[in-house]
Amino acid sequence: MLIDTHCHLYKEYYENINNIIEISKKNGVSYYISNGCDTKSNQEVLQSTEEYQNLYGALGIHPEMVDSYTKQDLEYIKDHISNPKIVAIGEIGLDYYYTKDNKEKQIELFESQLSLAEKYNMPVIIHSREAIEDTINILKKYNVNGIIHSFSGSLETAKIYIKMGFLLGINGVVTFKNCKLKETLKNIPLEYIVLETDSPYLTPVPFRGKQNNPSHILNIAKFIAEIYEIPLEELIDTTTYNVKKMFKKMTIE
Ligand code: NI
Q1: In the chain, where the domains are located
Q2: 112 alpha carbon – ligand 1 mean position (Å)
Q3: What pLDDT score was predicted for residue 133?
Q4: Which of 35, 199, 235, 253 is the most exposed place for a label (fewest CB within 10 A)?
């Protein structure tokens, strides 16, 4: 039983989501957390959680939406936060890759969603790119936990996040040539790791160049099991247990 804790199963990426779910099922994928980025995708996430029993959702405004979001977008999250299939606030965070100029606005958006998560006792799914220091300092101000999505930082950074109660979301990036994460992971206990694909992005080796989908999580799992030198089953069981513990609203059998 594999769980994709971070994907974006939107119609703009996938012509036939049924098909994607079927293919993924064949590879042992049992549960999904589809993450929203703005109100349009948040609505779609919510709708797909109604359509698919094993699909759960996270609602959030992505930092890249910082210049276009409105108060209504935050209201939408709040209005649906108590939905039983909505298990986290995400994808939220900070992204200084393209620009740092809107840093203050990004922080404001991030903090308003962290307060929501804190108030409603919801885990958060964090996007942090070129913004480690600010991410850590801001997260420290809130009583929240969740997943650091697409973690690829240093062991030192991993330890800080773990101490704060976060799990590290590992995806196809770990399979990329020259990725230092392979070495770092060896020093991070498996009890802090969860699996994700970030579909349709970050396609793992050997599917580079193709669109990613949750079925590829099997390859990521196999790759990580080799890093830890443990049987695939053990890796799957432990990471599934980690998800269960963090996302209390998910019914995992
Ligand atoms: Ni994502």
Answers
A1: 2-246
A2: 19
A3: 97
A4: 253
